[in-house]
Specification:
By secondary structure, this protein is mainly alpha-helical. The protein is about 35% helix and about 0% strand.
Length: about 100
């Protein structure tokens, strides 16, 4: 579930992104404890909608990233930004030369 990724944005996370916000603390923490799949899905959408609506973009850097690009790929390929527009995602759509 995507809410697991949101666990990085609370004070108790192993690695803090510096994203401490009372609303996020309350709602992410509650969703992480949810066991009902339907309620969890609704809470997950609520959390990520709130993050989108409040322009909460946290990817200031990317660590340990190795992009598997070879010589047979089109160097002019424009990445698709499905979630994070600053990193190339959607590698399955890379055009060959």
């Amino acid at each position: 579930n995507p809410i697991i990724g949101a666990s990085n944005y609370v004070k108790k996370s192993t690695f803090s992104y510096g994203t401490e916000h009372p609303w996020m603390e309350e709602h992410i923490s509650a969703a992480l404890l949810q066991v009902d799949p339907a309620k969890l899905a609704a809470q997950t959408v609520e959390v990520y909608d709130w993050m989108y609506d409040n322009v909460m973009a946290f990817a200031l850097y990317n660590h340990d990233g190795v992009w598997p690009i070879g010589a047979r790929l089109d160097p002019d390929w424009t990445p698709f930004g499905f979630s994070e527009v600053r990193t190339p995602t959607g590698f399955e759509y890379i055009k060959h030369r």
